[in-house]
Amino acid sequence: MRWAVLLAGGSGTRFWPLSTPETPKQLLPLSGAGSTAEESIERLAGLVPRERVIVVAGASLATRLRSLLNLPAENFLIEPRPASTGPALIWATWEARRRDPDAEVLSLHADWVVGDAAAFRRTADHALAAARTHDRLVTVGVVPSRPETGYGYIVPGAPLDQGVRTVARFSEKPDAATALDLMAAGALWNSGLFAWTAERLLAEASRHTPEVSAALPALEAGDVADFFLGVTPISIDVGLLERSGAVAVVSGAFAWDDVGTWQALARVRPKDPNGNVVVGPAVVLDSHDCIVWSERDPIVVSGVQDLVVVQANGRILIMPTERAAAMKQLLDALPPAVRDIE
Length: 342
Hints:
The chain is of the alpha/beta class. The protein has 2 domains: 2-257, Spore Coat Polysaccharide Biosynthesis Protein SpsA, Chain A; 262-339, no CATH class. It has helices spanning 36-43, 59-69, 85-99, 117-134, 176-184, 198-208, 210-213, 216-220, 224-230, 236-241, 265-268, 327-333, 336-339, and strands spanning 2-7, 53-58, 76-79, 104-109, 113-114, 137-142, 152-161, 164-172, 188-197, 247-252, 256-257, 277-279, 282-285, 291-294, 299-302, 307-312, 315-320. β7 (152-161) and β8 form a beta hairpin. α3 (85-99) crosses α6 (198-208). It is globular. The N and C termini lie far apart (43 Å). The relative contact order is 0.14.
């Protein structure tokens, strides 16, 4: 009965100039030799059979993903247009139920880095069991390791079972002071790892997500294009989990990172004794806490600290690590001839 839905869309901006629309973040070897998409599939081994893993992506990535992930062709769902995670997950869950009326679904993203695959599987197994036992939409909250302002938080409520609680409230991307208060109150990072039965997800979406529910008849009729024409883009968190009263949370006992910026590589890649992350042909001398990535040409970095230095796709990027989170603003300011990589 178990299925997994892997969300593998993405525009390829966070790791410019290494990432491009044709090779976005989830196709990059951010934490090791393989891409994060490949690692995501491997992490499911023993939990969900490969033939029951559904991948949702846009048309521009479909061919690459098919060759990379070695899954059945019918398990790739190609979105007619980007519409955020709400429509994507509702469509994929509907498809799982069409193939298996008793489907239980685990939803995950293709661009995460997870430090302990076995602990991930144990937690996912617990979440799937809780979704079935309590007939709820289950979100996995990760115990925070820092007051991260780029993540959403979950405040657990009353206990339902051992390790399963209701959700008191969600808090989306708080400031640093609020994040510290949330951590002190026992709040968890909202990882985006979800579990539900297909029946419950579709019932809750029909009740609480008007941005999508009006288009569900088109989906029931098998008209995916019309379904996407009729939906309003909305995330599954905002469109459903924050509205439904049938939500629970389990705590994730594994290292998790969504690797949102170049700076995040310092958390998921080995560092030298001076705190530098070096990938590719580069020499780093008398420098501290730098991220250096060379796709091809040798780079020499000397006597600096807290810099991101990247050579890829005919571009060179140099920026303070503290500015890595402002990549979108940087790209918006660049001339198209520099920004756009063919």
